Amino acid sequence: MTDLAPAPFRIRESMNGIAEAPGKTWFFELAAAVIDADRCVRCGACIAACPTDSIGVSSKDLPYLVKMCTGCSLCWDFCPRGGLRYEATWHRPAAAPPAPDCFAAGRVSGVAADFGEVRQQAAVRVRVGSRLRAYGAQDGGLVSAVLIAALECGAIDGALVAREDPDTPWRGVPYVATSAEELRQAAGSFYNQTLALAALDLERAGLSSDARIALVGTPCEIQGITALQRRAWQRGSSRVDAVTLTIALMCSKSFDYERLMVQSLATERGIDLGAIGKVDVVHGHLVVLGRDGSVMLDEPVKGFHNAALKGCDECADFLGRAADLSVGSVGSPDGWSSVLVRTEQGASALGRIATEVEMEPISRPEALAKLDALDRRIADGALARPFELNGPMFIDYAEHAAFYEGGERAPHWAGR
User: Fold this and answer.
1) Rounded to whole angstroms, how far apart are CA atoms 387 and 90?
2) Are strands 120-126 and 106-108 parallel, antiparallel or unpaired?
3) pLDDT tens digits for range 218-230
4) Residue 292 to residues 73, 188, 205, 288, 296: CA-CA distances in angstroms?
5) What's the topology of domain 7-88+389-404?
6) Are 296 and 287 in contact (CB under 8 A)?
7) What are the domain boundaries of the chain?
8) Strand pairing of 213-217 and 243-249?
9) What confidence score (pLDDT) does residue 359 get?
10) Are 404 and 411 in contact (CB under 8 A)?
């Protein structure tokens, strides 16, 4: 095996000849194994985990060190592509489910399926004329409705969502919304990762120290917050325990903003980003609509895979199994949201809007099963470490590096 860390990063030994204490993992190891190896999924878990607020966001939307690293190892531990065995965060179904359900482990129309814990499943859309309806919301408008209702009844004080960067068209950035109007303005989806967990400094958002918030994010972001909450530790400015409701957006890939919106759409296809009214992935196609509703683009999403984050290939969690609610469009008619309720918190959140929505069973659960199975097959080919549902939550750096050594995703000491 080659050296796992070059001499310059054996910090104390290099400085004064004193060997480091055993078990330390530095941000430099995380950078080598994940960021420089082009495996970062930009969830922000490392930033939220750092007890000294030593990690920031670079101009390339990647974590980077802004002051001295203490070698506490937490950034490594909670990274879904580093020390976190992300499948250990999933809600698992009870040994004896209360009732047969096609969403439990088994088969759906001939497709092997394990949806994790599912207490309820439904296709949902907000009623026309409902006070909870948000213009521009994706699919059935469920996520916005759930958040507005929770905020209005005092169940939460805000919600960490994505909204458009005021200076960059169609670039999603993390934002803590604290009013129904702010939630309506943030309705809709962006297809670049926002490092959402880096935005958990609630004081900066104007919230008190005892505030409660919802988090809407991709499965990897939900994995990160779930793991952080399960392992209490002194944090920096990030209030990870303030998150009391998690909503996962079903996701098979996230994209780099520059590669997708600027290069693929604006430069190669001549699309004016300022004229876009909506971006969506529907039936395997990337669809871009103008502000007047006209179709500006309708192409198979596989044609944009070069713009996707490489680390997404290692994720077998299309369905967001660690969340309270999992929401997406797959499996339901156009204009509806497919919803999987996984926890009591999720059931309460959906129950608050029962009179404001139409609800029926998900019509094509096999579509969910097929996409989830595809993600698992891709992950099986890309994930160098063993996939272990019942394995320990954390993997140390040396073990991880041994699994990945020699492959295209091996630790890469860029410029060092």
Assistant:
1) 13
2) unpaired
3) 999 999 999 999 9
4) 50, 16, 34, 11, 10
5) Alpha-Beta Plaits (3.30.70)
6) no
7) 7-88+389-404, 89-278+307-379
8) parallel
9) 96
10) yes
